[in-house]
DNA sequence: CTTTTTACTACACGCCGTTGCTTTAATCGG
DNA sequence: CCGATTAAAGCAACGGCGTGTAGTAAAAAG
């Protein structure tokens, strides 16, 4: 189904997305979006009325009237993002450009239950909210949680290590307590949203590899996050890499995660990063992506080693080079991505 | 970029897609599409004017005016599809519903060159065209080719075993010779299009596994074929399944394809199907899909064995069952899918 | 200063789905 | 048997989308 509201929202999002990557002009927006100059003028004037864009000077390119520069008003809209791990809650405040403005971190009790969590979330959110925010600039809160969960319904199913979380409608609970719109997604998905939102059209096919105690990936395919039928895509840690390998906690044998963690426990960084390299090379080949972003505690402890380990296993001299990078957002990537996921609900391309 | 033409085309495609799955009524179309009843009425009247739909009786559901049944006029539009293998060319004629109406098969000379191929394609196309087709019912020709190739540009790059095919603009060559619109895609992609086009909304996240001399997959993710940055996605045969496994023709070790073909050569069908099972289970977990379709010469020789081998490796008693099936199109699946890919260029959802 | 070139906008327009209402055709209730 | 009720579908007016045409604004070039 598509109607005129969809049409407008879609084109608004296209223009805003291009504007996010830096100062632009109407002419350039028309060229890069495929919209006619008239349509761009209308869209831009809507966005200026909403306070999302401002005109900021001119740029001269040869003869003729100079182009009017347009700039995103990054702090016209803000969002909060949370990362929930088994022992820690992190909440960050980001602006429309995806810049992290502030953060708060608090420990979570062992095997915490939903009410405890919602209260703690509310406490951190209130702290960040009261300092800066007057008026309606704060759009809502995104939550990046460990899986499995359902992004569409906002229900957490049964994450390992959290016995009190059996089919908990977290999105509804959080919306009620915080009085703000809430979106819920898997941590790996919010992380890849962070990269996609900040890098824009440059990043359309990418994988974000999150290496911590487990190994999960977030997939950006053709400009959209791939979540699968039940938001369960990206469980890459338990993919078989060695048929007769060592047993894994998941019950099967020779999983990527088992091989990686064994090598890491031995202190064999070369072997550990090589495992990740082989796994990523398989992914690149399967999905035909041109960007790989590495993140997670293990990677951030030894960024160069993991980056080089992955690069070494990727095919060289290829007609399509694969860009391998470490997330510039560091420990904030999941929480910041959750905030950007919420921003994208309002200002991203509608479905 | 989106405009009113896009809007109309999109909604037309939505309605036509629903109509493809059997006789429906305007009310049901409105319910299932999310469009308003008036919008459906307008769309349907457009489609009737174009000869794509007809009213065919009524259906009574309780009180009130009975619903008018609508039926797809399947033979109002036809398309041809070709499958190109290293030793054989197959061309089929399908209607708008994806039903195969006719076929022609011809051997191809060893290491055939582009001109030879285009002439042979033209000969088979002409044969199928002259028998049935008067007027403008034939929309064009789809070609499913072995990779690597570029779907967007229509250029075949450098398929192994075909030394005369270095960056050949096959789509342009074929369009010129045949005088018909042509689309080009990898064989695995056209095969998954065949399943998607025929099964409609029921199939939104699926993998088609094509097991022949190699092993490739076609991915349908969130209702769209995933091709990757350079139409190279789905090269699954050379994914590592055993780190220290036997050497593969690709230069690496322990690839799925190498393990499978070794087992098959030994005549060990259980082992061969189990390898495919493990590989598919990994895929299902990674992509979170709910449908697996098996196809290809090896599978069609022992369909039950492959189907059961795959089922055995998939997680059981899961909250999300995975449906495993054999393609009902048999040897035609790639060629028929190529025809449906062409149909979808005209009557599928626009990008 | 005039001409040329380029950026941008004002406004009428065609066409999209939507809204409100009417017509059509069945069942239901007496 | 027949009016009341219910549901499907069409008609007409409408708001809003991007588009096309024509015009204005602001620079460089001559």
UniProtKB/TrEMBL annotation, chains A, B:
**Assigned keywords, A-Z:** Kinase, Transferase
**Domain annotation HTH marR-type: ranges:** 17-54
Protein name (database record):
Putative NBD/HSP70 family sugar kinase
Q: Which GO terms describe its molecular function?
A: DNA-binding transcription factor activity; kinase activity
UniProt superkingdom: Bacteria
Please give the family membership noted in the entry.
Belongs to the ROK (NagC/XylR) family.
Cross-referenced InterPro entries, in alphabetical order? ATPase_NBD, HTH_MarR-typ, ROK, ROK_cs, WH-like_DNA-bd_sf, WH_DNA-bd_sf
């Amino acid at each position: 189904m598509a109607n005129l509201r969809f049409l407008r929202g879609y084109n608004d999002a296209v223009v805003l997305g291009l504007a996010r990557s830096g100062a632009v002009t109407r002419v350039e927006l028309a060229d890069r979006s495929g919209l006619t100059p008239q349509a761009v003028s209308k869209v831009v004037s809507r966005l200026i009325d909403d306070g999302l864009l401002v005109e900021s000077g001119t740029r001269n390119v040869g003869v003729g009237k100079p182009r009017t520069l347009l700039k995103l008003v990054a702090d016209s809209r803000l969002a909060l993002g949370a990362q929930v791990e088994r022992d820690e809650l992190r909440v960050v405040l980001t602006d429309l450009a995806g810049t992290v403005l502030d953060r708060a971190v608090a420990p979570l009790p062992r095997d915490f239950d939903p009410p405890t969590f919602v209260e703690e979330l509310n406490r951190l959110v209130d702290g960040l909210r009261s300092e800066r925010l007057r008026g309606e600039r704060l759009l809502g809160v995104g939550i990046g949680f460990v899986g499995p969960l359902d992004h569409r319904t906002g229900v957490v199913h049964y994450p390992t290590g959290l016995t009190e979380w059996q089919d908990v409608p977290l999105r509804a609970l959080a919306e009620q307590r915080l009085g703000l719109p809430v979106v819920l997604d898997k941590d790996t998905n919010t992380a890849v949203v962070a990269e996609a939102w900040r890098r824009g059209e440059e990043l359309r096919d990418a994988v974000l590899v999150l290496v911590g105690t487990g190994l999960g990936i977030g997939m950006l395919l053709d400009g959209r996050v791939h979540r699968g039928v039940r938001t369960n895509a990206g469980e890459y840690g338990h993919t078989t890499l060695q048929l007769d390998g060592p047993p894994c906690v998941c019950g099967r044998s020779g999983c990527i995660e088992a091989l990686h963690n064994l090598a890491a426990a031995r202190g064999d960084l070369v072997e550990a990063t090589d495992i990740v390299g082989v796994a990523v090379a398989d992914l690149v080949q399967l999905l035909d992506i041109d960007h790989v972003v590495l993140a997670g505690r293990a990677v951030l402890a030894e960024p160069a080693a993991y980056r080089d380990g992955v690069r070494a296993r990727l095919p060289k001299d290829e007609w399509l080079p694969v860009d391998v990078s470490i997330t510039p957002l560091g420990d904030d990537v999941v929480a910041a991505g959750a905030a950007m996921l919420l921003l994208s609900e309002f200002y991203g391309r509608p479905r």
